Amino acid sequence: MVVKNPKSCKNCSYITVEDVCPICGNKTSREWQGYVIIVDHTKSEIAKKMNINVNGKFALRVR
């Protein structure tokens, strides 16, 4: 069983295992800290503050 380490997009902070972000197409980084899960981005105050327009898992800090 192979477990891939999650990466986070340097632009939109979306967490994925891919080398390129599926949302915005930018490069991803292995260096990120903390995460938030957005279930309903239309009603979420955190999503509004982070400028998130889709549901998913997002990093709080990306290097």
The helix/strand series, from N terminus to C terminus, equals EEEEHE
Report the count of strand segments. 5
Task: Estimate the global geometry from the Cα principal axes.
Answer: globular
Distance between the termini: 29 Å
Query: Strand share of the residues?
Result: 25-35%
Secondary structure topology:
Elements: E1 7-9, E2 15-16, E3 28-29, E4 32-38, H1 45-49, E5 56-62
Antiparallel strand pairs: 1-2, 1-3, 4-5
Overview of the structural elements:
With 63 residues, this protein is mostly beta strands. The protein has a single domain, classed as Rubrerythrin, domain 2 (Single Sheet). Helices cover 8% and strands 33% of the residues. The strands form two sheets. It has a three-stranded antiparallel sheet, with no helix packed on it. It has a two-stranded antiparallel ribbon with strand order 4-5. It starts with 6 loop residues before the first strand and ends with a strand. The mean pLDDT is 95.
Brief digest:
This protein is mainly beta and 63 residues long.
List keywords for this structure.
63 residues; mainly beta; Rubrerythrin, domain 2; two-stranded antiparallel ribbon; 33% strand
